[in-house]
Write a structure and sequence with these properties.
By secondary structure, this protein is mainly beta. It is 0% helix and 48% strand. The chain contains no helices and 13 strands. The strands form three sheets. The chain has a six-stranded antiparallel sheet with strand order 4-3-6-11-8-9, with no helix packed on it. It has a five-stranded mixed sheet with strand order 5-2-1-7-10, with no helix packed on it. Strand 1 and strand 2 form a beta hairpin. It is elongated and about 80 Å long. The two termini are 28 Å apart.
């Protein structure tokens, strides 16, 4: 059963808003009337396959406590900015921390990923020009072990036909 079939996260920065989320009547592709074009370039969801930039991207419903979806967006300074211009991004989800739904932000310039809840739902950076981010909402299930080694051990009269050594994300 889906825990939160409908949700949104509003991203605010440079005087503009983006809305990403999931809705029962949406698909992961373009949905006329749900996914809205964006006429301004400061904060936008670039969707070349849809014919331009968008300010709203709703995806098909999913259980965000068991699956993860990612939205890519860009931010640009509102003014002719120097390298030390500060851009502040604020994230407002319709779900609370008790829901267990994670929100991670990956900054393509630094290569770092932060937990937005730990960061107080804010992210600031300095710089000029367009900067790309990935917002991931939900939890990825733990992967299966990526390495498994089965060992047969014998010592004198004693033996163990199967000793398993493996790796696991939660180990």
């Amino acid at each position: 059963a889906e825990v939160t079939p409908d949700f949104t996260v509003t991203i605010a920065g440079e005087g503009e808003l983006l809305v990403v989320g999931a809705a029962a009547n949406a698909t992961d592709g373009y949905d006329p009337g749900l996914d809205l074009p964006d006429a301004t370039p400061l904060l936008t969801l670039p969707r070349p396959a849809w014919g331009g930039n968008y300010e709203r991207d709703l995806r098909a419903s999913y259980d965000p406590t068991q699956a993860l979806k990612t939205w890519t967006f860009t931010a640009s300074p509102a003014a002719s900015a120097s390298a030390d211009y500060q851009v502040d991004l604020a994230f407002t989800p319709t779900f609370d921390a008790a829901s267990g739904i994670e929100m991670l932000l990956r900054d393509h310039v630094t290569g770092s990923t932060i937990d937005l809840r730990d960061a107080g739902l804010y992210y600031s950076y300095t710089g000029s020009g367009v900067r790309m981010f990935d917002l991931s909402i939900g939890s990825a299930p733990s992967p299966l072990p990526t390495l498994v080694v089965d060992i047969t051990a014998t010592c004198g009269a004693y033996s163990d036909p199967l000793t398993r050594a493996a790796t696991h994300a939660n180990a």
